[in-house]
Amino acid sequence: MRCIFCLRCVVSAFLQTPFEIILRALHTGPCSNISGTEWTKPSGFDTGLKVFNSLTKQKEPLILAREGVATWYSCGPTVYDHAHLGHACSYVRFDIVQRILSKLFGITVIHAMVITDIDDKIIKRSWEENICSTVIASMYEEEFKRDMLSLKVIPPAVYLRVTENVPQIVAFIDRIIKNGHAYTTQEGDVYFDIKSIGERYGKFGGAADSQPEPGSHKRDARDFALWKKSKAGEPYWESPWGRGRPGWHIECSTIASTVFGSQLDIHSGGIDLAFPHHENEIAQSEAYHQCAQWANYFLHSGHLHLKGSVEKMSKSLKNYITIKVKPGLLFKLFYGMTES
Ligand SMILES: [Zn+2]
């Protein structure tokens, strides 16, 4: 019988390999050059399993690009505050799915997770606390990792911080502009041009077409920032468009592509990330790779609700419980209070 920590052993061997070799081993060829908005069943290794794919809103056969290996990218935390049980629930659920794939079906899951360590909320928190944003981010990143360890969630093969990947992000944006899917403004911002991809925007529902707001330099109200000009007092990086910082969505497209190349088997995250975050990730990645199906499966975790409440657990509603509880209590909460 296989040890429950088989994946951990695989990951540890994986991490001892030079990063460039890992990248060469994982990169697939160009993603399938299909057209249209419909999901296309991938070709490759049929696991015999089915997963609920948010792209089709139904169970689909899980077919991987390589036999016995699943490439898996997940949106990690924005590290500006304590994580709560709503976040924990999502990570525990996907940990269970990954353990099932590896332990019961012998599939090696290679999981990369981004740590969002630069963001409006982090900057705001750093101003409120009068502490450098890098210190705030580092403090809550370490706390998040401790929380996950306390819940026995197997760590990803690799964590990648946004601030350590800015040159890659700049190059990624530059390619999207050259491919004709983004534009710059006189102010030094860069926006994704939604109209340039036509009907392909809206895989998770999407926003209705509308006119730009007065004073906005966006061509279409749905266009979203790839690069934001820095305001006074904000952290910034140099770019061909001036000093600024990455928009939120571009970090995931860049980092997932840096690790896994032009195609991804599985992408996961909370259901509240489906739109606009994952929708925009798809638009950017397919505009960069010039393909029509970048990630084959999107797995979304539902909200955690407190018993008797229709409201999800969230910081803004102030109804959250932090993860500083015994793991046993977490699993009691997990099984007793979820609706997904
Ligand atoms: Zn993401």
Automatic annotation (TrEMBL):
GO terms for biological process: cysteinyl-tRNA aminoacylation. It holds the Pfam family tRNA-synt_1e. One of its GO terms (molecular function) is metal ion binding. It comes from the Eukaryota. InterPro entries: Cys-tRNA-ligase, Cys-tRNA/MSH_ligase, Rossmann-like_a/b/a_fold, tRNA-synt_1_cat_dom. Its EC number is 6.1.1.16. Residues 67-324 form the tRNA synthetases class I catalytic domain. The keyword Metal-binding applies. SUPFAM superfamilies: Nucleotidylyl transferase. Keywords: Aminoacyl-tRNA synthetase, ATP-binding, Ligase, Metal-binding, Nucleotide-binding, Protein biosynthesis, Zinc. The keyword Cytoplasm does not apply. Its cofactor is Zn(2+). Belongs to the class-I aminoacyl-tRNA synthetase family. This is cysteine--tRNA ligase. It comes from Takifugu rubripes (Japanese pufferfish). The gene is cars2.
